[in-house]
Here is the input.
Amino acid sequence: MNLWFTETENSNLAVKYRIKQVLAHKKTKFQELLVVETERFGRALILDGAVQTTIADEYVYHEMIAHVPLFTHPQPQKVLIIGGGDGGTVRETLKHRSVEEIHIVEIDPEVVAAAKQYLPELSSGFNDPRVTIHHLDGIEYIAGCQNEYDVLIIDSSDPVGPAVGLFQSQFYRQAARALKDDGIFVAQTESPWLNFGLTLPEIYHNIKAAFPLTRMYICNIPTYPCGLWSFTLGSKRYDPLEVNPDKIADLGYRYYTPDLHRAAFVLPRFLQDLL
Ligand code: SPD
Here is the structure.
């Protein structure tokens, strides 16, 4: 079958995937939702034309967004995930035995429903008794939180459409307020090779202004445009570079390792210069 999905990044760049089947395609209240079976990467969740996750490589992103902050905190108990409606981040967070309570704030209930139906490998954690899902706007939710969470993970889509406010200074200041005195924040902060309205240095500096310690780390995600992807961690007390690798338990990873925890913070020169 000669059926393709094309993710168009801008007028000069697009990425194409051959697909076997369209499993779901609808306009939700917030965005265009598409689930396809690709030939190369298995099932893929696509929102507003951008690949969010695929079965073949999802573990890279979800392990890196969850375990780096969760192992930086010595005893994470209460975790907030904003976005994350596919379930990959909560699945990884649940592997930490110290975690007692996880709140997911996903604006679009149809993303959670699609993940439950088509991506069971990711969404298995939604039924865990430690998890509560709120279908609310993360920006409004966080405005009502103070000194509440140990770890806050922003697992958002790109800074366009419903996610744009999750990349702004005011949101990061409120995120810092929502954390306890030794809390840790992490957000997916896009690729240095692309610019969806906000540049990576702008996002990084918005986060840096809200936290005493800010560090960027990177990984390679084949189905995100240009591959090289960044996360930015903001911390009130703990430094991810001071984590003792011997204290990183093996919770069954496919990408993350104790050595990689540190190595991911080593940035290429062009990225250092960009920041
Ligand atoms: N360009 C797509 C970036 C998407 C980042 N978030 C994905 C959510 C996966 N849980």
User: Anything to note?
Assistant: The chain has a mean pLDDT of 97. The CA atoms of residues 73 and 158 lie 27 Å apart. The first strand starts at residue 3 and ends at 10.
